[in-house]
Amino acid sequence: MSSPPPTPGIHHVTCIAGDPQENLDFWVETMGLRLVKQSINQDDPGTYHFFFADAEGTPGTSMTFFPWEDMRQGKVGSGQVSRTAFRVPEGSLDYWEARFDEYGVPYEERVERFGETVLPFEDPDGLPVELVETEIADDDPVVPWTEFVPAEHAIRGFHSVTLWIADTEPTMELLETMGLEQVGSEQSPDDTPGDERTRFAAAGPVGTYVDVLPTIAGGRQGHGTVHHVAFQTPTEDDQSAMREAVRSRGLSPTQQIDRHWFRSVYFREHGGVLFELATSDPGYDSDEPLADLGGRLVLPGRFENRRDEIEAGLPDVTVPEPDR
């Protein structure tokens, strides 16, 4: 079969949190991301689904969370996304270390990786996250949100995800099938477990990289872990072609599922990480004006007639707003 159009990169990363208010406070106020959609988990409508992104919800910028309060603490291990990294403009890490000191965010010493400076830290649920200083092109598609963090230091979408995999070869072959190119490898003494880190690059400017590290360390899903990583398949045709390519690798992708703001296909890659293929349309502004994104609970169509029931079962939350 012919190769599918290559993925431009990461579309979104979805994680598991605990307390929903704590999650909102951290990602909006501390990290300066915009809440572009306040909704529910469509497979578990008694749980919120928060989408944090740039000012316009650009593909490649949205970190999303299911705050399952009763779930246990997770542990990162083989078959998971071990770290999610965001881009920040060059020279920003001094600002972020000072901000983390002010807000009591635990962070580690900077490391150098593939010629870039990386600042590892954790969110309130212990989720491993990183900031990576990168050069931001003048025509970069990300529109930084500047209500809490100034533009010269604001997060500019995803840089990469790191996959921990027991047998890395089938996963790396799949990434190449999806259109990512192996661009290098290096010893990775900052990662435990794991030794050699192999980097793959997608075709687009945002959410470009996927790093693969070998490990057999056991993990479990729960607070502070990634639920799945979604890759951009911008059009329906792109997604259909990628789905067939994934099937040709012996995997079992789902049929397309309507997620209201994008259309999705899911599958577990060979190492156990849950992957999603997500279209660009309709987008987060398809059901509320751009200026009003995130300001109210939005229920996808089939849930609207259950609004009273759903709202009654969700805890009250307040979206942080800057002092004027």
From TrEMBL:
This is Ring-cleaving dioxygenase. PANTHER family: RING-CLEAVING DIOXYGENASE MHQA-RELATED, RING-CLEAVING DIOXYGENASE MHQE-RELATED. One of its GO terms (molecular function) is dioxygenase activity. PROSITE patterns: VOC (PS51819). InterPro entries: Extradiol_RC_dioxygenase, Glyas_Bleomycin-R_OHBP_Dase, Glyas_Fos-R_dOase_dom, VOC_core. Residues 9-134, 157-280 form the VOC domain. Keywords: Dioxygenase, Oxidoreductase.
